[in-house]
Amino acid sequence: MVVAVFDSGFGGLSLLNEAKKELKGCDFIYFADNDNAPYGVKSIDEIRALSIDAVEFLRPMADIIVIACNTATSAAISDLRQKFSIPIIGMEPAVKLGQSEDGNILVIATPATIKGAKLNELLKRSNLSDKTYLLPMPKLVEFAQNMEFDSPSVKRYIAEQIAQINATNISLLVLGCTHFNYFKDSFAALMPNCKIVDGINGTIKQIKRKLDELENGKNLDKNLIYYSSKKQKDIDLITPFLSRLDEMRKI
After folding, report:
1. pLDDT tens for residues 78-88?
2. 8 Å CB contact between 7 and 69
3. Contact call for residues 136 and 157 (beta carbons, < 8 A)
4. Residue 29 carries which DSSP code?
């Protein structure tokens, strides 16, 4: 089976890194739309058009397409599923885990995800609107894309942004953008009593269920192929990102 993972940039590698460990026997394609990153500050129409273009590119090569981008999922998943017959799995912030928490929830994401109807509907369905703070942190995407993970500028930006909200009794920090997984150490240092979660495990469970339903997948010659905005690239270019993510998964 071939699983194609798509993101606006290098954030979706956090999902790919876990999927490679959990989904044995699968081949993977990773597509980073680096030429158009970041998505989180674009309009819904722009995000939708870019997402459709990405799926058009990937569908001849894949059995399943995973939108490893909360922003693209929020803006385009319904349209993508209507337009394409290939199974498409999206990402959403793991806010439901807050149902078992006594304290409040802080969701950090891109501006497009924060403003999007999908997240706000999810909070209402889960009865979590009254205990959830929403905080956009778009500059983290740029830091991640530039492989700037733990510089003084990164740590100062995170501290300044969190200080802007009047958040009390936060027990759960939800990473609503896959780019944010590169900064778990900074979040853990700043909020040591806070549990940090993302939507990756839930998405991988969905992939497993879909793989169980499919038969006779295609095969590729390589375990992982990497594309950057439709141009095939040397796989070694993403090795530093995967190494960083292996460090962050220990937190």
Report:
1. 999 999 999 99
2. yes
3. no
4. E
